[in-house]
């Protein structure tokens, strides 16, 4: 718009200037009026030039501002894009990390489950084995007890049968009666063990059967015989308690009979 006014002013100045010059040459009143018109056109021209310069200056100054704004917008856009890429990358890395942690947690859970199942299986196998061993031991003990009870029952039945089949006691023979008399005579003068008395009767000529019959058919307290024999030994020599026990056992008394005698004597 300012450029248009400038052009019109220039054209008006030229026209009015020409007319003014002609009027001055002719020296009429029109020249004066034309001079005023020329002055007005000059003022308009100056105003147009000023406005045009201002517009150009504004245009000139606005163009770098626009360029700067465009550059800043471009930089802002690039920064925004970089930020979006960085955020997208962070989101991707977070998602990847979360996936890895999830996978790790699943693997750990599976491992813990497998370990728990293994421990449970081992515990069940151990309990089963212990139960089998306990059942086996119980069965063996039961079988052993049953066998012992059966053997005991058979032994009792056998003893009962033998007792039932035992013949009635017959009258002793003369030799057996004599053996009994000899045994009672020996016991009246000195102490004997059961085996020692049988040996003494055999030494006197009785058979083992006769001597055994005689010893089995007399009334005698063998513990008392052991006490008498021990006292006889102590009357003639000294003994320790263990030595006297050994001597009495050597003479045919049992360990229990010899111990009884030493305790009774108070050795």
Structural account:
With 267 residues, the protein is mainly alpha-helical. Among the domains are: 1-55; 173-220; 221-267, Orthogonal Bundle (Arc Repressor Mutant, subunit A), CATH 1.10.10. 87% of the residues lie in helices and 0% in strands. The chain contains eight helices and no strands. It has helices spanning 2-26, 29-165, 174-189, 194-203, 208-216, 222-236, 241-250, 255-265. Helix 3 (174-189) packs across helix 5 and helix 4 (194-203) packs across helix 5. The radius of gyration is 75 Å and the shape is rod-shaped. The chain starts with a helix and ends with a helix. The relative contact order is 0.04. The model has no long low-confidence stretch (mean pLDDT 83).
Which key phrases capture this entry?
about 270 residues; mainly alpha; Arc Repressor Mutant, subunit A; 8 helices; rod-shaped
Task: Describe the structure concisely.
With 267 residues, the protein is mainly α.
Reconstruct the topology from this structure.
Elements: H1 2-26, H2 29-165, H3 174-189, H4 194-203, H5 208-216, H6 222-236, H7 241-250, H8 255-265
Helix pairs in contact: 1-2, 3-5, 4-5, 6-8, 7-8
The computed structural class is mainly alpha
What gross morphology would you assign?
A: rod-shaped
SSE pattern: HHHHHHHH
Main pleated-sheet profile? none
Mean pLDDT: 83
- Please provide the count of β strands: 0
Return Rg in Å: 75 Å
Question: What portion of residues belong to β-strands?
Answer: under 5%
Helix percent band? over 70%
Number of alpha- plus pi-helical segments: 8
Gap between N and C termini, in Å? 159 Å
Low-confidence stretches are none
